[in-house]
Design brief:
This protein has one domain: SH3 type barrels. It is about 5% helix and about 55% strand. The protein is built from one helix and five strands, in the order αβββββ. The chain has one helix spanning about 10-15, and strands spanning about 20-25, 30-40, 45-55, 65-75, 80-85. The chain is elongated and about 45 Å long.
Length: about 90
């Protein structure tokens, strides 16, 4: 994202992050990183070259993470908790 002054509404973050890498936190301890290809007013997202991380705590309070790579994924907007551009790293 190039210019923080251009942010006037929440969906501006998505608009300014088109074709850039983003971080998406979803309900259910699911996180995604990928290139934002498309979005709509409901915050439905299409991500390419995505990496999904699912964090699970089992009955023994052990934390486990599962990571999978996805070439293309549709994320339903009502599952999205946070959308953020990824900085260059």
């Amino acid at each position: 994202m190039k210019n923080a002054q251009m942010l006037q509404e929440p969906l501006d973050i998505a608009r300014l992050s088109m074709e850039e890498r983003v971080f998406v936190k979803c309900r259910g301890e699911r996180q995604l990183k990928g290139t934002l290809h498309s979005y709509d007013v409901h915050l439905n997202l299409v991500l390419a070259n995505a990496e999904e991380t699912l964090t699970v705590v089992d009955e023994n309070n052990k934390l486990s993470k599962t990571v999978r790579k996805l070439p293309l994924i549709f994320v339903r907007g009502d599952a999205v908790v946070l959308l953020s551009p990824l900085g260059e790293s």
